[in-house]
Each structure stands twice: as structure tokens, then as C-alpha cells.
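Whiteboard transcription, Tuesday session. T.W. wrote the C-alpha cells on the left side:
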């Protein structure tokens, strides 16, 4: 029987819209490009302030979260931990977030700014400084803030509240269960179309650069469409194979390989290029960026009308481009970020890629400017309008240029594959509402569609029209992202107050009645068998008495004996989360000096054991080894009293219904 996990309410409208725009762009590329350009230019000229304020708001919001009380909240349960190593995580961030763009614009953008006379400054030093400054601005904190807002929102609502990993989930505090209806489908259709258009255009331009590099190395004779078809066929096949292996294998391995190659190429240019000049220019460029940060952030060029066309074609276009890519990149970042804290997420996503981009753009862009002035006699400046070949022509001024160009092509190819397989994964994720396991034919379908439409558009000259369409969609999505922030702030406020809420005043501390027994317990070490015995006797008896008494009061409680070292009492509910109070045997390592000290508890082994209470909402657990049976019963009841107080408050609905959220389709 034909099986699919595709949700037709998302898939069919998306396909209708995608094919309609693509067919128009293929059949009438000039007309489509002209119409869409008119719309794009109207937005850029008259509504550019929306992009400026939105991106500025994103940066301010993330900086606020970084230093706020919410920074320690984990993207998942309180006891969850990251699924990927830090290196693999950062590698995948780069592969999805910038990828081909670093190779395509690493030399091209600084050179294009350097050769532009838009600012009316002819002096070499000022031109070079401006080229570096605006390149930093376009590839720095602002770009990654856009990705971080979407990624953080998705991670929080998916892993913390157990909602589907879908953009619709980010509206839960505002729309509640309406996210599962037409509103939610509309949001996901928008995200799927935006992702598809963004990846298609990027892969189309990536193919052109790969073909150009292969021609320069004499691997292929020309840059005709035939060779572009062969390149797409091979690379998309690799992307499909990688996507079929999953994030933990194909995408992670390719990302790790590519970061290694990228760093190697970076060091190659840094060492064999104008090293002292590059180090000095990076230092000065970083200071220049920091000094001008606020002027750049809020700048609209409104007083300098001659620079407005440049402003629209560069800054506003970049903000629109990053926003249009954010559903795709944000979803992928969220997928790989489970278990990180909000503070760790922001620091890593906002600062580490930014710092690397600054180094990359300095090494390649400033090297090209230096060679253009000292060796090339302006030859690289003349190629500024041809970014497809500029990187390879720049490498010709370095030793081992053939080898460096070959490595560059390999990097672009791997970036192409990782962008495609990440895109395939994300699009299938959106279209299936985060299905756990989809049939393999769906992965092949997405890869085939990407290859087919990118080639059709490339051959017909329709990529520019599709790019304009992608940039137009960024305007409404910038508003959607602001609503993400509103939802996230509302959820974080409730989250923090939920876990910060203390026990009721009925909580009774220790009395002094059993102080001799307590002292004996404190100064004696526990082995595993004694703690297991405590759980199987004192804890089990306490839970049994509680179960009986709960039943007398009309409450059904169950005792879950997981093993000899772990037991729970659980009260199940249909909508709100189940109440769970469990006890498990836990160990900790003892320091050598502690074992050898005479006036400390008698410990003979490197580990000591104790019973630890844990709770269904993953709040911080604690040691209960000194509790008597009645004190343990009292402890369970005070947690149950807290539970009832919290679930009775309407504002806590998001957190107390997360088990129910997880069942939503």
C-alpha cells in the first residue's frame, strides 16, 4: 500500500503555489522578473524601514535574553543535554547558515564595495576600510540574529513545551489550539514555499560557480547548460543519499569535513598571502565595526540620496535575503540545538559564526584588495562584476593556485550538498508536521523537485524572478518573526514563574526529635545496596500508604516500580501533565583527600550513593536519604499541593499541558 506522512493541507497548497510561480518564471522569465522587480523595488524604497526596525529589534531582543534571568532556561527538559558535540553543532550551523555564500561573496563583496564610487571617496585607504566595514555589517551579528530568533523560538516551543517542530508552534501562546487548524497550515505553507524558493535560487547560483571553477581548471570545456545538468544530477543525488542517512550521519559528517577544509583554505591564504597586513586590517576592521555599530544598525541613508540605490541593493536586499532564508535555517538550527541553554544558544549562534565570518571576509577580501593594488594592477577590480569566477582568479596570485582552486571547488560542492540535504530534511519536516519517520520516496521527491526546478529556471533565465519572489516574501515574514518574539517572551515569563514558585507555607522543616539518628546517617557512607534497600522499604511503604489514602479521597494513584533502584508514584490526567514523584539511586564520585581524612565520614570506595527525588516536570531534584517514611509522605504531599496550585492557574496552560501538546497532530 502507498504510504506517506505528508499532510495534504500543507503539501498541496504549497505545490500549487510553487509550481505556479516556477512555471510563470520559466515560460515568461522577463515579464515575471519585471513585474516582481517592480513589487520588490516598491517594498525596498517605501517600506525599507520595516526591515531596518525588525532586524534592529531582533538584535536588541537577543542581547536582552543573553543577560536576562531567562538565559539559564534549557531548550528541553531541565535535565536534557545536547545531542551533538560543540564542534559538530557549530559545523552544521555554518553549513546551513552561510554555506555557498561564504565562497561566492568572500572575495566578490569586498571587491564590489571597494570598486564602487557611490560614496564619492577615491582614496585607497577609505575605500578599503568601507569595503571591510560594510561586508562585516552584512555578514555579522545582524544576519545571525535573524536566524537565531527563528531557531530559538522553534527550539523552545518544540523541546520545552513538546509541540511539533513547526513554525505554527511558535504561535501557541497567542493562538492556542488554533495552531492545528487553517491558521497553522497557512503558516507552514508560507514557510515551505519560502524555503523551497530560497534553496532553489541559491543552488542555481551555486551550480554556476562550480561550473565556472571547473572551466578555469580545464576540467570541463565550457559553462553550457549540459554541464550544469550533469553537475546538478551528481550533487543532488549525493544530497539525497546524505539526507536519507539523517542529520546524525550524513549531514553531520559532511559538515565536519567541510569546516576542516574551510579552515585549511583560510590558513593557506592567511599564511601565503599578506599575513601582517591581514592581521592588522582585521584588528582595525573589528574596531571600526564596533565603533560604527549603532550608526550602521539604524542607518537609512535618508540624508544622502546618492547612496540610496546602493543601500537598497545591498543592505536592504541582504536583510530581506536573510529573513527569507530564516524559516529553513531556523528549522535546521532548532533541530540540532536540543538541550542547549538559551544563553549558550545565543552566544554560539550570534557570536561564533559572526567572528569567523569576519576573519574569512578579511582574509579573502582584503587579500584581493591588496593583490589588486600591489600585483594585479587593477585586474581583480575589473572582475568585480563577475563573482562566479572572481574567487578562482584571486587564487591565481597565490602559490599552488591549482590545488587551492580545486579545494575551493570541493568546498563549494560539499556546501551545495549540505545545503540541499538540509533543505530536503527541513521541507519534509514542514510538509509532514515533524513526522518521526517518513518513507524514503519523500526524500527523493524533494531532491528531485529541487533539481528539476533549479535547472528549468537556470536554463530559462528565471532564477532572477524567483529570487525577487523570495525577497518579497521577507516583508510579511519579518512581521511574523516579531510575533514569534511576543509569543516567546510570554512563554518565558510563565516558564520562569512556574519553576520559581516555591512550596506553600505548610512545608515543615526538620524537627529535632530524631537528631541522634540523623547524625548517625550523616557521618556514615552509603553503598548501593543500602540505598536500594531504603527505596524498596521506606519509599515503597510511603508510596503504598499514599496510594491507599489517595483512593479514599477519590484520586487514583499508581506505583511504578521501574527497577530495584527506581520507584515512582504517579497520578494521571487527560489534559494537564501527570503528577510524578519518583526516587532513584544516584551516585557521586568522592575526592581522594575526602577518603583519607580521619575526621570525615568513613568512606572506603571512590563512590557513594544516595536516594534522589525527581519530578514529572523535570525540576531540580534533591537528596532524600535522611527522610523518614512520614517525612517522605509529607514531601510528596507538599509537591502535590504545589502541583494543584499551579495547574489551577490559567496562565500556566502552556507548561502544564505539554504531554497533551506532544500528542497534537
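and on the right, the sequence the group agreed on:
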Amino acid at each position: 500500500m502507498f504510504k506517506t506522512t505528508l499532510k495534504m493541507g500543507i503539501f498541496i497548497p504549497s505545490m500549487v503555489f510553487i509550481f505556479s510561480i516556477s512555471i510563470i518564471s520559466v515560460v515568461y522569465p522577463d515579464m515575471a522578473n519585471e513585474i516582481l522587480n517592480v513589487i520588490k523595488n516598491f517594498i525596498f524604497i517605501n517600506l525599507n524601514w520595516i526591515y531596518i526596525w525588525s532586524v534592529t529589534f531582533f538584535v536588541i531582543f537577543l542581547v536582552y535574553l543573553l543577560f536576562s534571568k531567562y538565559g539559564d532556561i534549557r531548550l528541553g527538559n531541565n535535565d536534557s543535554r545536547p545531542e551533538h558535540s560543540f564542534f559538530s553543532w557549530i559545523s552544521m550551523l555554518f553549513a546551513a547558515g552561510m554555506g555557498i555564500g561564504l565562497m561566492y561573496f568572500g572575495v566578490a563583496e569586498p571587491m564590489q564595495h571597494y570598486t564602487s564610487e557611490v560614496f564619492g571617496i577615491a582614496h585607497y585607504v577609505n575605500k578599503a576600510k568601507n569595503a571591510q566595514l560594510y561586508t562585516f555589517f552584512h555578514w555579522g551579528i545582524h544576519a545571525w540574529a535573524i536566524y537565531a530568533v527563528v531557531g530559538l523560538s522553534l527550539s523552545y516551543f518544540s523541546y520545552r513545551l513538546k509541540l511539533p517542530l513547526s513554525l505554527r508552534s511558535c504561535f501557541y501562546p497567542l493562538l492556542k489550539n488554533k495552531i492545528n487548524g487553517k491558521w497553522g497550515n497557512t503558516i507552514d505553507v508560507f514557510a515551505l514555499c519560502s524555503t523551497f524558493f530560497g534553496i532553489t535560487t541559491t543552488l542555481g547560483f551555486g551550480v554556476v560557480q562550480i561550473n565556472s571553477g571547473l572551466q578555469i581548471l580545464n576540467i570541463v570545456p565550457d559553462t553550457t547548460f549540459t554541464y550544469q545538468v550533469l553537475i546538478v544530477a551528481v550533487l543532488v543525488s549525493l544530497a539525497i543519499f546524505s539526507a536519507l542517512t539523517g542529520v546524525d550521519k550524513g549531514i553531520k559528517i559532511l559538515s565536519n569535513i567541510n569546516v576542516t577544509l574551510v579552515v585549511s583554505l583560510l590558513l593557506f591564504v592567511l599564511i601565503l598571502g599578506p599575513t601582517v597586513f591581514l592581521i592588522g586590517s582585521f584588528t582595525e576592521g573589528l574596531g571600526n565595526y564596533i565603533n560604527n555599530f549603532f550608526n550602521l544598525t539604524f542607518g537609512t541613508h535618508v540624508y544622502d540620496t546618492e547612496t540610496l540605490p546602493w543601500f537598497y541593493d545591498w543592505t536592504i536586499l541582504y536583510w530581506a535575503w536573510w529573513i527569507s532564508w530564516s524559516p529553513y535555517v531556523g528549522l535546521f538550527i532548532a533541530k540540532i540545538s536540543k538541550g542547549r541553554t538559551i544563553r549558550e544558544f545565543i552566544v554560539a549562534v550570534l557570536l561564533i559564526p559572526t567572528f569567523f565570518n569576519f576573519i574569512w571576509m578579511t582574509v579573502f577580501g582584503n587579500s584581493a584588495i591588496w593583490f589588486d593594488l600591489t600585483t594585479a594592477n587593477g585586474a581583480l577590480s575589473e572582475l568585480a562584476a563577475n563573482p562566479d569566477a572572481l574567487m578562482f582568479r584571486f587564487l591565481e596570485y597565490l602559490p599552488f593556485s591549482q590545488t587551492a582552486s580545486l579545494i575551493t571547488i570541493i568546498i563549494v560542492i560539499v556546501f551545495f550538498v549540505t545545503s540541499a540535504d538540509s533543505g530536503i530534511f527541513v521541507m519534509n519536516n514542514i510538509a509532514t508536521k515533524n513526522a518521526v519517520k517518513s518513507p524514503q520516496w519523500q526524500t527523493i521527491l524533494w531532491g528531485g523537485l529541487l533539481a528539476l526546478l533549479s535547472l528549468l529556471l537556470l536554463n530559462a533565465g528565471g532564477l532572477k524572478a524567483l529570487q525577487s519572489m523570495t525577497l518579497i516574501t521577507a516583508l510579511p515574514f519579518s512581521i511574523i518573526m516579531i510575533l514569534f518574539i511576543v509569543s516567546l517572551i510570554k512563554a518565558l515569563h510563565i516558564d520562569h514563574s512556574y519553576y520559581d514558585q516555591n512550596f506553600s507555607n505548610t512545608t515543615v522543616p526538620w524537627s529535632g526529635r530524631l537528631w541522634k539518628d540523623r547524625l548517625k546517617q550523616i557521618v556514615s557512607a552509603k553503598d548501593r545496596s543500602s540505598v536500594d534497600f531504603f527505596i524498596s522499604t521506606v519509599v515503597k511503604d510511603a508510596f503504598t500508604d499514599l496510594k491507599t489514602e489517595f483512593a479514599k479521597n477519590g484520586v487514583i494513584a499508581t506505583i511504578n516500580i521501574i527497577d530495584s533502584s527506581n520507584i515512582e508514584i504517579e497520578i494521571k490526567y487527560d489534559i494537564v501533565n501527570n503528577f510524578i514523584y519518583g526516587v532513584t539511586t544516584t551516585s557521586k564520585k568522592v575526592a581522594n583527600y575526602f577518603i583519607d581524612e580521619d575526621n570525615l565520614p568513613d568512606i572506603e570506595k571512590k563512590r557513594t550513593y544516595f536516594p534522589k527525588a525527581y519530578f514529572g516536570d523535570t525540576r531540580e531534584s534533591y537528596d532524600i536519604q535522611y527522610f523518614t517514611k512520614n517525612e517522605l509522605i509529607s514531601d510528596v504531599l507538599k509537591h502535590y499541593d504545589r502541583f494543584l496550585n499551579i495547574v489551577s492557574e490559567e496562565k500556566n496552560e502552556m507548561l502544564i499541558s505539554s504531554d497533551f501538546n506532544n500528542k497534537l497532530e
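Someone added at the bottom: The first helix runs from residue 8 to 27.
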